[in-house]
Write a structure and sequence with these properties.
The structure is a single chain. The chain is of the alpha+beta class. It is about 35% helix and about 20% strand. The chain contains 27 helices and 34 strands. The strands form ten sheets. Strands 10, 11, 12, 13, 14, 15 and 18 form a seven-stranded mixed β-sheet that branches. Strands 2-1-26-27 form a four-stranded parallel β-sheet, covered by helices on one side. The chain has a four-stranded antiparallel β-sheet with strand order 6-5-9-19. The two termini are about 60 Å apart. The structure holds one RNA strand.
RNA sequence: GCGGACGUGGCGGAAUUGGCAGACGCGCAAGAUUUAGGAUCUUGUCCUGAAAGGGGUGGGAGUUCAACUCUCCCCGUCCGCACCA
């Protein structure tokens, strides 16, 4: 038999008729929720995308064969900017474009034999989905977790539009190359910072997540504990709040630096002789977007504010500077500067001739730094710190914090890098934010019964950069839900990460009209047992989903605190050393492969090419190898059907023993590979060995038909999660009426693994010299004697007695001379 | 700069977790079969050497009977974060 694409179609039809992947949600016994990150349907899929779905399908099918009740759903992250850009460029409606892509991708997935429960398909741009995205917004709003504030956006003055970060190329607008400015706009935020501590703490629950993803999330949350304290300003009623994690260095604080956005700057500099100069400096700094400000080459600059602050511990007056390297977004926008123990402060202090006082002594006896490299930033023993001298940093931090608290100067404080989630998008193709602005009542949420706020479809797409919603009267002008007076609808739409932060819940109750999901079902089926996707979502998508999940739990809608039990992040497939992209022209399109080699060949190669969590280079020759292997394996079934059985001996012959042992060790190892971290590549290589062994044994000796048949059957059962089509075909040829996926995953039998004779390595001084066949029942002394009597060993030892002999059972004998 | 991962043949990668380095596949070479093949089947393939032997997992040290695996230093690649006070 030859494997070919015709076989694919036959079994794809069969599975869909059989409803192989239709999950029974009401039956929670041995449930297994296998979730693959749903795609953004921007164009057809290439082999890089395919890896994700092939892995997911292999897992789902494997679990199915283990008798699990498997749920493997699929959907579409269907809102987003690219659709809108396409609309403007090619005059296609985003909806039309998106649905067309969905149709195409669905065909692709089907042609690869990826099995999904399509009855649960979810599309985020459908009103029956985004109704509930809006509902979630309203719940957050009710709890005060959705709020509006001014925030800076990237603004192109020529296009009169907001730009997403990816639309800013080298600080310029991607469309017209105008330099991008900062502009403040009223924007909607989700208060994810309220959950910062829990998002951090619960990372410890995620034992089955890749370590690096947890680390990335941890860094992103960026918790740091320190002290927030007041610096009084001389000749002023102002106080400057500073946050520091190193309060033990406060005696070395020789100046204070403020961000250009610091709220009270105007007051601070009102009497400065060079006020104009200062203002122009501030304006200069502010005009630069944050992305420019954080460039590596960015030079530290500042200006003296003309005012002095009082160091609360020393009582000394220290100058207040305004500096371009202080971030308003973190801490208080003001810091105390300790040039002796902070490189950045040192750089600044040397540039502007500010004082440098050493207050921490390193173990190796540091001195006041002369160059940035000499700045000691570690912990140590406090010096020049009055009554705190001699304490180590750790104690110092505690004692000074206690002292400050007592004196009312400052208090312990925890800070996070995590910032609230900006969800407003000044875009058309997204879920409308369900808010109405009334002239009288102000900001009014759309009542739940009026959801969804439908996104109007009859709109024009012009390259103005403005949301088309601004020109739809019917959408824009509404009456206030409270007072029925004149009101205006919010025209911003939601970030697509909001859509994707809860889709895994909707799959459970995809068709519910009255609720976003049925709590009972969701609680039975979640958390997701296995989540699979790209590492590019390690931070945002996974953080937002965790946040929304926790929020819904707080509302009592769900009972679990983390949505994804186990996470697997697959590596990229690269071609010619680079990520596949149309512009580079290195995209490997699957259609051609499917047509020539069939789906199983592509699937097998994708899984065989390397460890799935690592990046891998696509090689057409590797694909050919998999094709050859499948044919080589498929040939076994022909050989079997033509096999003339001779009257078998009563006892198993050597060849039969070897094949039986190979069958069962393969079952054992493949199962272990799949139970581990999805080591598909080694699992497949082991099946290849079994095929090789079977061919070899048939050529060299006689097998009774039952063992031959068991070998063939095992090969294709073990391959079934990877190459489902050919496996079904062989399964049918072997006379089975039922799908191979209704068959139980095989169990290995210990009795066949047993080996009478094994070959061990004989080493002298740790170096392999000889091999020795031993019987497993031999005593250790017998083996040692045999090893010592080997010619080569004797030659090396001469007549001397070995100093020591180490024996590791069934592995090696190491003779120490 | 900080944090993390990694470094094994011509290539993709294995190595039971400290126990015979290079499984499996690709590529290559020789042979067989074939009208022919980019099909199939044998055999070989870490380097060096005619062989015996010697060397070998980025480099250097160390622990150990034994190190790809553990420890320290250095070099390199990739990823993430990046003036976070």
């Amino acid at each position: 038999m030859q494997y070919s694409k015709e076989i694919d179609k036959k079994w794809q039809k069969f599975w869909s008729k059989e409803k192989l992947f239709a999950a029974d949600i009401k039956e929670k016994k041995s449930k297994y929720y296998c979730l693959v990150m749903f795609p953004y349907p921007s164009s057809e899929l290439h082999v890089g995308h395919a890896r994700n779905y092939v892995i997911g399908d292999a897992v789902a099918r494997y679990k199915l064969m283990q008798g699990h009740n498997v749920l493997s759903p699929m959907g579409w992250d269907a809102f987003g900017l690219p659709a809108e850009n396409q609309a403007i460029k090619h005059k296609v409606h985003p909806k039309e474009w998106t649905l067309k892509n969905i149709k195409r991708i669905k065909e692709q997935l089907d042609s690869w034999g990826i099995g999904y429960d399509w009855a649960r398909e979810v599309t985020t741009c459908h009103p029956n989905y985004y109704k509930w995205t809006q509902w979630i917004f309203l719940q957050l709003y009710k709890k005060g977790l959705a709020y509006r504030k001014e925030a800076a956006v990237n603004w192109c003055s020529s296009c009169k539009t907001v730009l997403a970060n990816e639309q800013v190329i080298n600080g310029e607008c991607e469309r017209c190359s105008t330099e991008v400015e900062q502009k403040k706009l009223e924007q909607w935020f989700f208060k994810i910072t309220d959950y910062a501590d829990r998002l951090l703490e619960d990372l410890t629950l995620l034992e089955e997540w890749p370590e690096r993803v947890c680390t990335m999330q941890k860094n992103w949350i960026g918790k740091s504990s320190g002290v927030e304290m007041d610096f009084e300003v001389q000749d002023s009623s102002l106080k400057i709040k500073c946050f520091t994690t190193r309060v033990d260095t406060i005696f070395g604080a020789t100046f204070v630096a403020l961000s250009a956005e610091y709220p009270h700057l105007e007051e601070l500099i009102k009497d400065a002789p060079n006020k104009d100069e200062i203002i122009s400096f501030i304006d200069k700094v502010k005009s630069k977007s944050v992305s420019v400000r954080t460039l590596e080459t960015f030079e530290k600059e500042g200006i003296f504010s003309s005012k002095y602050a009082i160091n609360p511990m020393t009582g000394e007056k220290i100058p207040i500077w305004i500096a371009n390297y202080i971030l308003m977004e973190y801490g208080t926008g003001a810091i105390m500067c300790v040039p002796a123990h902070d490189k950045r402060d040192f750089e600044f202090a040397t540039k502007y001739n500010l004082g440098i006082t050493e207050v921490i002594q390193s173990a190796s006896g540091s001195r006041t730094p002369q160059t940035p490299d000499e700045v000691y930033e570690g912990e140590g023993v406090m010096v020049n710190s009055k009554e705190f001298n001699g304490l180590n940093s750790e104690e110092g931090k505690e004692k000074i914090a206690a002292y400050m608290k007592k004196k009312g100067i400052g208090e312990k404080k925890v800070n996070f890098k995590l910032r609230d989630w900006l969800i407003s998008r000044q875009r058309y193709w997204g879920a409308p934010i369900p808010i109405i602005y009334c002239n009288k009542c102000g900001e009014v949420p759309v009542p739940e019964k009026n959801l969804p706020v439908i996104l109007p479809e009859a709109v024009k797409f012009l390259p103005t950069g403005q949301s088309p919603l601004l020109h739809i009267d019917k959408f824009l002008n509404v009456s206030c839900p409270k007072c029925k007076g004149k009101a205006r609808r919010e025209t911003d739409t939601m970030d697509t990460f909001v859509d994707s932060s809860w889709y895994y819940l909707r799959y459970i109750s995809a068709h519910q009209k009255k609720v976003p999901f049925v709590g009972k079902d969701v609680n039975n089926w979640l958390p997701v047992d296995q989540y699979i996707g790209g590492v590019e979502h390690a931070i945002l998508h996974l953080m937002y989903s965790r946040f929304i999940n926790k929020f819904l739990k707080d509302l009592g809608w769900i009972s679990f605190s983390e949505p994804f039990q186990r996470l697997f992040t697959q590596g990229m497939i690269v071609k010619d050393g680079a990520k596949m992209s149309k512009s580079k022209g290195n995209v490997v399109a699957p259609d051609y492969i499917i047509d020539k080699y069939g789906a199983d060949t592509m699937r097998l190669y994708i899984l065989f090419m390397g460890p799935p969590q690592k990046d891998a280079e696509w090689q057409d020759e590797g694909l050919q190898g998999c094709w050859r292997f499948i044919q080589r394996a498929a040939r076994l079934i022909d050989m079997l059907s033509e096999y003339k059985e001779e009257q078998p001996e009563k006892e198993l012959n050597e060849h039969e023993k070897i094949v039986l042992r190979k069958i069962h060790s393969t079952i054992k190892e493949v199962t272990a590979d799949l139970e581990g971290n999805f080591q598909f590549n080694t699992a497949i290589s082991r099946v290849m060995e079994l095929v090789n062994q079977t061919h070899k044994s048939l050529a060299e000796g006689i097998l009774r038909k039952s063992i031959f048949k068991e070998a063939v059957s095992t090969v294709f059962v073990l391959l079934a999660p990877f190459t489902p089509h050919i496996s079904e075909e062989v399964n049918a040829l072997l006379g089975n009426k039922q799908s191979i996926f209704r068959k139980k995953w095989p169990q290995f039998k210990e009795q066949y693994l047993h080996q009478e004779e094994v070959e061990i390595g004989v080493l002298v001084n740790g170096k392999l010299r000889e091999k020795l066949k031993i019987n497993v029942n031999w005593e250790r002394s017998e083996i040692e004697t045999k090893a010592l009597s080997l010619e080569k060993v004797k030659n090396i030892l001469k007549d001397k007695k070995p100093k020591n002999v180490v024996y590791i059972p069934k592995r090696i004998v190491n003779i120490v001379a």
